[in-house]
Amino acid sequence: MSDYPADLKYLDSHEYVRLEGDMATIGITAFAAEQLGDIVFLELPEIEDSVSKGEGFGSIESVKAVEDLKSPVTGTVVERNEAMIDAPENVAEDPYGEGWLLKVRISDSSEVNDAMSAEEYSAQVEGMEE
User: Fold this and answer.
1) Cβ–Cβ contacts within 10 Å for residue 61, how many?
2) Which of 25, 61, 68, 70 has its CA 20 to 30 A from that of 49?
3) Is residue 51 part of a domain?
């Protein structure tokens, strides 16, 4: 399954992170969006809020469930995707592009070293789908 871009790192809680220098773009994976179904509400931290690796930073709600969002990195929120807050149902349409959730200025890029590669994440997800 090649639904997972190779330039991203993945958490077992189904968030992804894209590192560009000291900036991390965080979102949820296509698998997570598919599992959630119709997304109806998104709660994200404010600009300048701090997020910590492994800690919750908000929630995403669908008609089926409410899931906590966990941060893959520690840092400061510099941008949040207002378009997704206004229209959370669009997250699933392009989770790795327009459907990103947060941009965070990180303090330590080595934090993502223990996150999964696209290949590892894909293997884990395939195990869940069987």
Assistant:
1) 16
2) 61
3) yes
Predicted TM-score of the model (pTM): 0.94
Q: In what order do the strands lie in the sheet with 66-70?
A: 39-43, 56-62, 66-70
Q: What is the pLDDT of residues 33-55, one digit of tens each?
A: 999 999 999 999 999 999 999 99
CA 125 to each of CA 13, 88, 89, 98: distance values in angstroms, whole numbers, following the listed order: 11, 23, 22, 23
Angle at alpha carbon of residue 89, lines to 58 and 61, rounded to 5°: 35
Dihedral sign computed on CA atoms, order 116, 67, 28, 130: positive
Over residues 71-127, the pLDDT tens digits come to 999 999 999 999 999 999 999 999 999 999 999 999 898 999 999 999 999 999 988
Full domain range(s) for residue 21: 9-129
Question: Which segments of the chain does DSSP mark as H helices, in order?
Answer: 30-36, 82-86, 118-129
The C-alpha angle with vertex 44 and arms to 122 and 72, in degrees rounded to 5, equals 40
Question: Which amino acid appears at position 80 of this protein?
Answer: R
Q: Is residue 70 a part of any domain in this protein? A: yes
